[in-house]
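C-alpha cells please, single chain.
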Amino acid sequence: AVVSTQSTGIAEILMGKNTMMTKAIRAHLPNNPSLEKILPFIKGNVGLVFSKEDPVLVRDKLLENKVAAPARAGAIAPVDVIVEAQNTGMGPEKTNFFQALNISTKIAKGAIEIVSNVHLIHVGDKVGASEATLLQMLNVKPLSYGLIVENIYDNGAVFSPEILDITDEQLLAKFQQGISNVAAVSLNIGYCTQASIPHSIINGFKNVVAVAVEAEIDFPQADGIKAYLADPSAFAVAAAPAAGGAAQETKEEEVKEESEEEESDDDMGFSLFD
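Here you go.
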C-alpha cells in the first residue's frame, strides 16, 4: 500500500512484503545497477520512502508523524511512564486495584484521587497486565509509534541519517584539521606539499633573518627586525604616547565630572561645607 505523508507532495511511503520489494528493485538493476546497494537493508519491518525533496526535510517530516498509542501488556517500554497526581473519577470500590500497584490514594468528592506522581513503568521494563489496565482506565496513552529512518539512498550512495546533521561549520573544521595534520607530517619528514609550503616559507624567512642579523647583512625585509633588536626601547617609547593619551583623556573626563557635581551643589544654594 502507498501512504502519503502529512505534507502532500513531499514524499510517498511504500510498505509491502520484503520479497516483493526485493523483486521490484532487482527488476530495475539493468537500468540502475547502484540500486543493488539497497538490497542488504531490505530486512525486518521496513518500508521505502520516495522523494525528490531535501533529505533533511523528509527525515524531519517522517519523525514528526507519530501516533499516540496505549501501553500493551507484555510490550517493552521504550520510555518511562509516570502517572501524575490527579482525581481519577473512579469510585471507591476500585481502591484495591491501586493498592495492588502500591499507588497512594485518597477519597476526594466520592472519587479516588492519586496523591502524588507515580513512576509506573521504567524504560526497558516489560509492561505488566495491571499497569496496562490502569493506564487504559485513566485513558493515558504514554507511547507513540512512528517511522524511524534507518538509512538513506541518494545518488548511488547509502549512508546513515546522522550524516544529515553535519553542518558546514563542522565540515570546515574537519577539513582545516586535516590540512593542519598534513602540514605537520610534511614538515616533520621534509616533504613539500601545498599545505606545508606556507610554513616552510615562513620558517625559511626566519632562518634568513637570523643569518642576516648575525652576519650584519642588510635587506629591506629584515630592517625592521634588526632595528628592534638594536634598540627595543625605541619601540617602547613609541607605544607609550598612545597609552598616555588614553590615560590623560580618562583623567580629563573625571575632572569634568567632579566640576559638574560642584556646580550642581552650588545651584542648590549650599555646598558640602555648609
